[in-house]
Amino acid sequence: MSLFSAISVSASGMEAQRTRAELLVENLANAETTRTPGGGPYRRKDAVFTTDSPETPFQSIFNSQVGSTSAGVAVSEITVDQRDPEQRYMPGHPDADARGYVAFPRINPAEDMVDLMSASRSYQANVAAISAVKDMIQRSIDLFR
Predict the structure, then answer these.
(1) Is 60 or 20 the better-scoring residue by pLDDT?
(2) How many Å apart are CA 22 and CA 34, to the nearest integer?
(3) CB neighbour list of residue 40: distance below 8 Å, 6 or more residues apart
(4) Across residues 3-24, what is the average pLDDT?
(5) Greatest extent of the chain over all pairs of C-alpha atoms, in Å
(6) pLDDT for residue 1
């Protein structure tokens, strides 16, 4: 694996974690949203990761000849929670049904905050990896002087 492909792998990880963090923040912001334009309460969203090979056509031919492969990460899909919403008895609420129950999203703010901290730390780890590779490249250049 070359140093530049290591940067590419870390960059793909940063992009995937950014998408995950955006979804987690959206979930937290809508934890109490009972009415959406599509009808019903907000539905929790989550990112599904998959391995990705961020290659150009030249890299794929080169890697097949050399036998070197590097895999990054990408968001393959964004899932939407399809479980039944949480029902709370609130007869005075404007979105209450005939029985007085209001449908709320199935979001656990504590769980999403922990996931958000994990996404942030993963992003920071990728930044540190890119910084280390950048330092290695700089030291290699200094050796040639």
Answers:
(1) 20
(2) 20
(3) 85, 103
(4) 92
(5) 80
(6) 62
